Amino acid sequence: MSIPVLVLLFFAMRRVKGIVELLVKAHIETRAEREQRATMVAMAQSLPDGGAAARFEQGQPAWLFRKDTAESAGHRAIATREAA
Hints:
By secondary structure, the protein is of the alpha+beta class. It is 51% helix and 23% strand. The termini are far apart. The relative contact order is 0.12.
């Protein structure tokens, strides 16, 4: 192989590495958000007499999960996204 091909291969591999790192970071952030949301829903569902659980991001309410007292035990908590 000649030197220009090796240089081209080196820069192509750096580009691929950057793309893979970006995809892995996005995947980890998505999984963390899902886990946090599932935790908040489970917390809202565990409230015995109804109520709400809020999650804050940078001091602003980001999610509000409510459980109404009229709901039966088999229903999911209501999840609403609030504008930050």
